[in-house]
């Protein structure tokens, strides 16, 4: 049964978030709020947790998982970033965007895309998740919380509790989140002088980035 942490969406309680961090550090999988629906997250370096996260979502190793980072400097440890990519990401972060970039050796091979050696990265704007990442002190591995066989992300923590309580170790409840997923941008063509590719248009504005 999942532990339930009800936090304030703007002024989250550090004591509750620290308890959630301890679950992650002991190999747990959590449902957490973001600026675009809820997500499943786990410790990056825990293979058992990563495998559990994939089983809960019922996704295979070809599905891009995402690293949730605190800031751009942290992101640069896990992805190869050139000046053009950096400028574009600086415009977009923090916010509801996911970027696909070439993974560095810091990313365990099991969590990067098996064919392309790429990784999805994002820097969320949600206060509760930002503070959770700060207390954790490192990126978290995550994926949008979509129930198996469905297409819409889940944004209601009570619904998540009813459907996933026995599968998760914890649920961080900050109230309802937006239903719309992130905008996904593949930045890998920019390494060769090309343009960013829009993989999915979601909540993040393309116009704000000049795309």
Which helices and strands occur, and which strands form pairs?
Blueprint: E1 3-6, H1 14-25, E2 30-33, E3 38-43, H2 47-57, E4 66-68, H3 72-75, H4 83-92, E5 97-102, E6 118-122, H5 127-136, E7 140-144, H6 157-164, E8 170-173, E9 183-186, E10 197-200
Parallel strand pairs: 1-8, 2-8, 4-6, 5-9
Antiparallel strand pairs: 2-3, 3-7, 4-7, 5-6, 9-10
Helix pairs in contact: 1-5
Could you characterize the architecture of this molecule?
- With 211 residues, this protein is of the alpha/beta class.
- It has a single domain, classed as DHBP synthase (Alpha-Beta Complex), CATH 3.90.870.
- Helices cover 26% and strands 21% of the residues.
- The chain has 6 helices and 10 strands, in the order E-H-E-E-H-E-H-H-E-E-H-E-H-E-E-E.
- It has helices at 14-25, 47-57, 72-75, 83-92, 127-136, 157-164; strands spanning 3-6, 30-33, 38-43, 66-68, 97-102, 118-122, 140-144, 170-173, 183-186, 197-200.
- The protein has a 10-stranded mixed sheet with strand order 1-8-2-3-7-4-6-5-9-10, with helices on both faces.
- Strand 2 (30-33) and strand 3 form a beta hairpin.
- The longest helix is centred in the N-terminal third of the chain and has 12 residues, at 14-25.
- The radius of gyration is 16 Å and the shape is globular.
- The model has no long low-confidence stretch (mean pLDDT 91).
């Amino acid at each position: 049964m999942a532990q339930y942490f009800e936090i304030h969406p703007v002024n989250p309680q550090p004591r509750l978030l620290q308890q959630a961090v301890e679950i992650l550090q002991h190999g747990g999988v959590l449902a957490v709020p973001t600026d675009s629906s809820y997500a499943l997250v786990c410790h990056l370096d825990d293979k058992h947790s990563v495998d559990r996260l994939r089983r809960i979502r019922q996704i295979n190793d070809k599905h891009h998982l995402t690293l949730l980072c605190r800031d751009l400097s942290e992101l640069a440890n896990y992805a190869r970033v050139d000046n053009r990519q950096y400028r574009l990401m600086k415009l977009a972060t923090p916010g509801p965007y996911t970027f696909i970039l070439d993974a560095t050796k810091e990313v365990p091979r099991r969590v990067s895309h098996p064919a392309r050696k790429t990784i999805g990265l994002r820097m969320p704007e949600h206060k509760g998740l930002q503070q959770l990442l700060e207390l954790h002190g490192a990126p978290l591995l995550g994926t949008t919380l979509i129930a198996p066989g469905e297409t819409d992300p889940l944004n209601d923590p009570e619904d998540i509790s009813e459907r996933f309580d026995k599968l998760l170790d914890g649920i961080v409840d900050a109230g309802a989140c937006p239903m719309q997923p992130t905008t996904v941008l593949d930045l890998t063509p920019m390494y060769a002088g090309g343009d960013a590719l829009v993989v999915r248009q979601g909540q993040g504005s393309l116009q704000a980035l000049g795309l």
